[in-house]
# Entry
Amino acid sequence: MGDSQITNGSKHTPAQGYDEIISASALEKFGYCPLSWWLSKDEADEEIDKKPLEKGEKAHAKVAEDLTGIVKGEKLAREFESVVLWFAIAASLISVMGISLVFKAGLDIGRIMGVMALIWILAACYFLYKAETISTKRSRMIYQRIILIFAIVATIIALNSVIILNEVDPEVAEIAQAVSLAWLIGACYFLYRSLKHFELATTKRKKQRVHHGIAYIDSEEKKPKLFVSKKYGLAGRPDFVILIGDEHIPVELKTGRVPRGPLFSHILQVAAYCVLIEEEFGRPPPYGIIRYGRVENEIEYESGLRELVLSKISEMRYLMKTGDVHRNHNKPGKCKFCSRRAICPERLD
# Structure
């Protein structure tokens, strides 16, 4: 539903070799009824029943809001968690410094701490090397965090060593203990913030029944990138994409009545998203997901389904040229639930 504004490609630059880009939502309309798809070219017609469409858009907007909240909440939780780590490390080491002054640690302990600082610096250099030789962005970020931790620890241990070796006034010990307590309080505050954001994100995950990483969200408030296949002249925005291991799985949400099984038109749409995901990431997803309310259907993405999508796209291009489009069914139920029923010249009563 997220690519409804690119239905017939007129608002976007055509893909290489094609006059128009066909959207995944247009393919879904075509799969439902070619004549309904053809009439959808003029969605501004006042006779079109837009209430079901508006209801669906509101439901999708709410899901997008929750999913965005999950991503933002978990990101903030991780950031606050990192702050907790820095505060806890600083509080611990400053406290050690204060204790060493209280007990008037001797020169030998000062020298030992100097050697320890050198070891931590060498360890930081090693992880710096690893960070530069790691190709993945995620691994590089992890190593960079480790480097920062090691550098902080090395600096504070070295500071302890200098203080001990220079026999600083023991009154500094009291100040150090007070500072460490303040840092510990700060760590507790950020831990609370981290847990709060994580709790809110977890609640929204349970509500939306999303248990994996979220790689992509279609939102009217902030439109994400449009997946485009220049090879097939196809484009679209799935409602969201989950990340399971290295697999990107498109998910399409359908509101309204829950059918006994996934509808053909919806299968075409999610398969079109699989085609786009395959071209975007260089590997085909094993399946796509269609969700009706609390019912979830996994649609296996195999070569036969892919070829069906491409054949339907070719058929649509042919009808765009000829304009000879007609209803392809004799099911009054289909006409009854069609939002373009009022303007359809071939509707079934």
Remarks:
- The radius of gyration is 30 Å.
